[in-house]
Structure formats: C-alpha cells, structure tokens
Predict the structure.
Amino acid sequence: SNSSIDLDQTAGAITKIESFGDKLFVFQETKVSVISYNERGIVQLEGTNPISIMNEQSVQGFTPMTDHFGLQKHYQCCKTDKGIYWLDSINKELFMIDESCQVDKTGISIQTNMYSWFIKNASKNFVLYYNYFYKDLMMSLHGRNGSENITLEHSVDNKTFADSIAFSEFVGGFSSFYDL
C-alpha cells in the first residue's frame, strides 16, 4: 500500500503543514492545499495535535485552495484562535484561512487599505507571531514563531532596529506600528 501522496511539484517545496479545526493544510511556495482524508482513520488523542492519522489508507489526496499564492518561509505563518495567517512575499500580501476554513483571495492588506505598505515592505524577512495578551498578530523583523526565536534585525547607519506592525483580530485591522 502507498503511504504518501504527491503534491503539485510545480508549486515548489512544502514550507509548512498546519492543522486548524479538523483540517490539515499544506503550504507550498505558490500553493495552499487541504489534505483529504477518511475521517474513520483519524483519531483525536488528548494532549496531542488535534489530528492523528492512524494508517496510510486514511490520507486520500489533496484539494488546492489557491493556485497563485503560497508561503515561501515557514516562519511567516502563524495560527491563532481565529485562523491561520501567512505572508506571501512574492505577491506581497497577507492572507488568512478563517474559522470556516476558507481563504479570502483579496488579501488582508487590500481589505484594510495597507497595500502600499505591503508593496514596500513585504519582501523583508518578517516573522509572524501572535501576542496572546493583546490578541494581535505581530509582523516583525524580530520575534518568536512557535518554539523558534528568530531575530532578523537589520542595520542602517550603524543603528540596529526592528520594524514591526500589529494586526488586531479584535478590530479587524492594523492597529500599530512599532520600532522595537
């Protein structure tokens, strides 16, 4: 029996696999897909990820959600209680898989009138992480993504600084710029 599935190789390498709700999402450099599986082969174990695949017959294939944007760097993806956010640095856009497991292909920067800022800044090596106290998604050149500490500071005129911007899930828009 076959214990693997083949994704679209033209969409680039797999950059991240993330669970949300009862679905598994596979991020590639230029595509996002949902893994299709037989629910009878899936169990939820207490204290583990929400989805455990019991045998190779459980995975049945994948369904593409997007075909022209993806995730280039694994640390530019962040899961919150409301969804999965990721930065596509090729298209210079922030996207989200929402609570209904759908993607609004317009993108957050266009919806919130921040498109010109993203055009100018999205190619930088931003880290996405979630501030649980303020309920803000942080996009920073210095941050923490999961268990990984990542510092991507840069220097101008011998001054080291880190640019940051906060997206408030409560407000539904960008709420602050920071210089950490």
Notes: Helices lie at 108-111, 115-121. Residues 143-161 have pLDDT under 50 and may be disordered. The longest helix spans residues 115-121. The CA atoms of residues 72 and 119 lie 16 Å apart.
